[in-house]
Amino acid sequence: MRSVTKVIYKPDSQSTEEYTVIVDPSEFQKWKAGDTTIPLTEVVDSFNIYHSAQGSQGLLNTPSNQQLDTVFGTHKDIDVVTKILKEGREQRGEMDENWADTNIGCAQIAYCGPDCQKRDWKTHKRSCGETDRIELGSFYPLIAFIMELQRNDPFKPSHRALGHQIVNSPNPWDEESVHRRIGGPQLFQTKSDRSFVVDSNPMLPSIISVLFALMAEMYTTTSTVNPSDGAKRRARLSYYGSPIADFGIAKGQANVKHQDHFTYLFLSHGMAFEKGQDPNDHYWIYFTTVGGQDVVLDCGLFVFNHPIFVVPFPHYAKYIPSSWPGITTLGVPAYFPPREAIKRGVLPRVHDERQRFSVLRDEGLKEAIRFSHDGFRPTDEEAITNFMERVAGRACEEIEEAIAIKWCEEACEVVGKNLQNREYLNYPKTDEVGHAVSEDPGDREQSALVPANELDEGWMKCLKKWNGKHRRGDINEQQLREALQSYKEKDQRRKRQ
């Protein structure tokens, strides 16, 4: 067993939390003596915080290169860079303003600025390895896509409203009525309201599954010096060049107008009322960059009449099992705020966050990923369900636990195949990802469900063209909607011919 140095750090004198850091003695001595590089690959503990003896160097909190136990030949390393808290040096004016953009190369070593990085490059380049940086703006449609497929999973219990017996006409005619049919005959359940009901999905198991898959499949990938020789290659998410340091579940309230709340009336059950999905118990995904910027992704707002979609290009559907249900051609619900709108501060207030729960840093989930390919052990399933109950703040029902386990396994398969085959290289760039905004959310139901691998290429090209014009400011939002609607109408006429 090699010699190590143990460092115990408390954030402040009042804190009840202590962090144990285990580092290589020689590296700790160099760092303590003022060396400007911190070799993250030397860290062997799961949660590691480097802190100077004087408390002036800031602190780096990272589960870097964690060596998990080898069990039945399964061995995975967790290797990420997390947020730098720049309190000490920033106050003295010593922290480089552009640190987040200049000091991360392969995400294996941290520097205080570009000069430090240049000085260390001759030494570091021999072991640098290569990292595929996947832009979050290009990758998030895959997350939204998986969550949409989960909404249509027949294993998930159907909403009561979808199986409710119609006991009378919703619009009875009296003798004085003028009988004039508007539109074709269509059962009300196939109209727009059905979309809202279908989207009343158990959000928590769905979010946990996609984030678990990210941790298990992406943040365990490693790299060697010569990946071109057939060696492994690591992949990591980034946001406009800044590595994603943490991700997890945010819990709080979705700001929803009263008229967008759903309530169900069951006449056959003695005029029983049932509330729809509660906006005060809402969950969404957060990502935090190494520079400390938070980015949100919410795929559960459509049920609250928030009709913003992302278009799942065929590349995202390539490794979806054929047994999975279909999707709509228009798009899948996803609220991912544009960077420019975030910087200008012009976004509406969509969420009120109360709590957040890191998935990447959760010790129990990190234990569970060891068997994500071979089938979960009972202890792994317990770790997933315990985490879900901690986030929910209540005991979860058996069906919630069952679908969480099922969806974790399936999401790992999809994300894993995309990474193994480097399909992300074919994803559209962030500014080419297609979006759709509809004044009538029922538009999403106007086209029949199609297999996930048979998405309409013409629709994709149309979205790319008109979204590009909208981003450049050539057209406004209303003109974008009209252009997309015009294409849909022409396409429907063509198909009827």
In short:
Residues 487-497 have a biased composition (Basic and acidic residues). It comes from Candolleomyces eurysporus. The protein has 13 helices and 20 strands.
Instruction: Please give the domain count.
Output: 3
pLDDT < 50 runs, ≥5 residues: 1-24, 31-105, 178-199, 223-231, 439-455
Shape annotation: globular
Structural class: alpha+beta
Number of strands: 20
GO molecular function, one term: zinc ion binding
Organism: Candolleomyces eurysporus
Domain MYND-type: 105-128
Region (Disordered): 474-497
Would you spell out the secondary-structure blueprint of this structure?
Layout: E1 5-9, E2 19-23, H1 25-32, E3 37-39, E4 48-51, E5 59-62, E6 66-67, E7 77-78, E8 84-85, H2 87-91, H3 99-102, E9 109-111, H4 114-124, E10 131-135, H5 136-151, H6 192-198, H7 203-218, E11 234-239, E12 242-254, E13 263-266, E14 272-275, E15 282-289, E16 294-297, E17 308-310, E18 332-333, H8 339-344, E19 351-358, H9 363-368, H10 378-392, H11 398-420, E20 435-437, H12 457-472, H13 477-496
Parallel strand pairs: 10-11
Antiparallel strand pairs: 1-2, 3-9, 4-5, 5-8, 6-7, 11-12, 12-15, 12-19, 13-14, 15-16, 17-18, 17-20
Helix pairs in contact: 7-11, 12-13
Describe this structure in words.
- The structure is a single chain.
- Strand 4 and strand 5 (59-62) form a beta hairpin.
- By secondary structure, this protein is α+β, with helices and mostly antiparallel strands.
- It folds into three domains: 5-128, no CATH class; 136-164 and 189-447, no CATH class; 456-497.
- The radius of gyration is 25 Å and the shape is globular.
- It is built from 13 helices and 20 strands.
- Strands 10, 11, 12, 15, 16 and 19 form a six-stranded mixed sheet that branches. It has a three-stranded antiparallel sheet with strand order 4-5-8, with no helix packed on it. Strands 18-17-20 form a three-stranded antiparallel sheet.
- GO terms for molecular function: zinc ion binding.
- It comes from Candolleomyces eurysporus.
